[in-house]
Design a protein that fits this description.
Layout: E1 20-23, H1 28-39, E2 44-47, H2 54-60, E3 64-66, E4 79-82, H3 91-99, E5 102-105, H4 106-114, E6 118-123, H5 128-141, E7 147-154, E8 159-162, E9 168-172, E10 187-190, H6 198-201, H7 204-216, E11 223-227, H8 231-242, E12 247-251, E13 258-266, E14 269-276, E15 279-286, H9 291-306, H10 311-319, E16 329-334, E17 337-342, H11 347-361, E18 366-371, H12 375-380, H13 382-389, E19 394-397, H14 413-419, E20 427-429, H15 435-443, E21 449-454, H16 462-476, E22 482-483
Helix pairs in contact: 1-2, 1-4, 5-9, 5-10, 7-8, 9-10, 11-13, 15-16
Length: 484
């Protein structure tokens, strides 16, 4: 996608947008933007075809939701907002241009909301949603009341966006379509850089160049944060420092500016010691497991430290961090089987998630219900995705979710399941959504952990799995399902 499609952040403010309409408002990114505008007191409407969980919150805040896509939805509207998932020939896009309305990409509308704030933008191939949530909670704990837009909802808080009164605006910056290049951050955080979105970039070198361009957009009075443990982040830091830019690193590497040591992860959570420039910052604890969670939290600690916020605020916020929905989210338990939901779809994040889930499973088995996200990624990374799925004990594979993509012969989950290094009786490709709960109920045993993983729609499957397991328990006189 050409960056010329997007207008760099300028003087346009959210109030300049007038009455705002978002096409496909139920998705995580668009619903977060809608919530931001609504909490800012702006009139918002949106259109959808599916009753996503986020829509109830939008209505509660006074937003209007049309459960159709049609020209009349734009009556009285001043600005129409779309995402990269919306085709240019969409009926509401065509109508907006016919009426001469202002038409903005989601990132352009978000940039307007950032005008006049000090933006903390978090980018990276993995971990940016969790890291954005952690930075937000640290600033909140410090009393800074930031505005924020996150690509997910902070569990228990139940919100992925808010209009705050403070000077900071925390945002998850999406590299998938190059739209992160319109932002002008005060702080840029890059968690890691790995091959992904190659349909946009072509190769890793071009992707790394885009991250470097993003970092160079950082305010000269601000700073850049990268991970010293990540090869891509390390290369980026070296490049930017050679240009005289202010870069700070974190990680377990001996030369990291903020260095982690004695990292311990278990089913109860993760803890580590942190020091910066040889000075101890003390011990940090999170109630969610995974060494990668500890690493994400270190970037939040470093960012808060460099912003001059109390270290104690970071310590307290992380100790209470509830996690992010769709990121290692516990859905419930039925008939002795724990069910989780996890957004991971790239092989690296899949591997990290499954290793953490194994810590939770203990002596039990790990059953993965996976829906690949995008045909191009499934094709280009088939061997790596298959290897990650091979870490499971049992696999139920759904068809690839790839809206707008044309399937070529031999592409999709039928080919992927053959590549997964599991015995034939421990893996299955199901052709319909309804077959997945049946397979899970047939395969899962008490003490097992089941995780729904991958593309956005599969997050809706967890409740159906719990129902199927509960029904199985009822047939056998066992225990019913419990949430949380």
């Amino acid at each position: 996608m050409n960056t010329a499609q997007f207008t760099p952040a300028g003087t346009l403010t959210a109030e300049d947008l007038g009455r705002i309409h978002l096409i496909g408002v139920g998705g995580v990114g668009m619903s977060g933007l809608a919530r931001l505008f609504l909490t800012r007191g702006l009139p918002v409407s949106g259109s959808e075809l599916r009753e996503w969980p986020s829509l109830a919150g939008m209505r509660a805040l006074g937003g209007t939701v049309h459960m159709t896509h049609e020209p009349s939805n734009l009556d009285g509207v001043d600005t129409v907002v779309y995402s990269s998932a919306i085709p240019q020939d969409h009926v509401e896009m065509v109508e907006a241009r016919r009426r001469g309305l202002r038409v903005l990409h989601r990132s352009e509308a978000l940039a307007a909301a950032m005008t006049g704030r000090r933006t903390v933008a978090i980018a990276g191939t993995h971990g940016k949603t969790t890291t954005t949530s952690m930075v937000t909670m640290v600033l909140q704990q410090a009393g800074a009341d930031p505005s924020f837009v996150i690509g997910g909802e902070i569990s228990e808080v139940g919100s992925g966006a808010h209009h705050g009164t403070g000077e900071h605006f925390v945002v998850e910056a999406d590299e998938s379509d190059r739209s992160f290049l319109i932002y002008r951050p005060y702080v840029s955080v890059i968690t890691n850089i790995e091959a992904d979105h190659l349909n946009t970039y072509g190769d890793l070198a071009t992707l790394e160049a885009a991250f470097a361009e993003f970092a160079r957009l950082t305010d000269p009075d601000g700073f850049i944060v990268t991970c010293a443990d990540d090869p891509g982040g390390r290369r980026l830091a070296q490049t930017l420092r050679a240009e005289g830019r202010r870069v700070h690193t974190y990680g377990e590497a001996a030369d990291a500016d903020l260095r982690l040591s004695e990292v311990v992860s278990s089913a109860q959570g993760v803890r580590y010691l942190a020091e910066i420039d040889g000075r101890s910052l003390g011990e940090f604890r999170l109630p969610v497991p995974g060494r990668h969670m500890g690493l994400n939290s270190a970037s939040a600690v470093l960012t808060a430290y460099l912003l001059g916020l109390p270290v104690e605020a970071a310590e307290a916020a992380l100790a209470a961090f509830p996690g992010v929905r769709r990121r290692f989210e516990r859905k419930g338990v039925a008939d002795g089987v724990l069910v989780y939901d996890e957004y991971a779809y790239h092989p690296t994040s899949m591997t990290l998630a499954m290793r953490t889930l194994r810590e939770v499973a203990g002596e039990g088995r790990l059953l993965v219900v996976f829906q690949p996200y995008r045909l191009y990624r499934t094709r280009d990374l088939q061997a790596e995705i298959a290897a990650a799925l091979g870490l499971a004990d049992e696999l139920v594979l759904l068809e690839v979710f790839g809206p707008g993509e044309l399937r070529q012969p031999g592409e999709g989950s039928a080919a992927l399941v053959e590549a997964v290094p599991l015995p034939a009786d421990r893996k299955v490709f199901v052709g319909s959504w309804e077959d997945a709960p049946v397979e899970v109920a047939r395969r899962a045993r008490p003490g097992d952990v089941v995780v729904t993983m991958g593309a956005p729609p599969i997050s809706l499957l967890g409740d159906e799995l719990l129902a199927a397991l509960s029904a199985r328990a009822g047939d056998a006189g066992g225990s019913a399902a419990t949430a949380g």
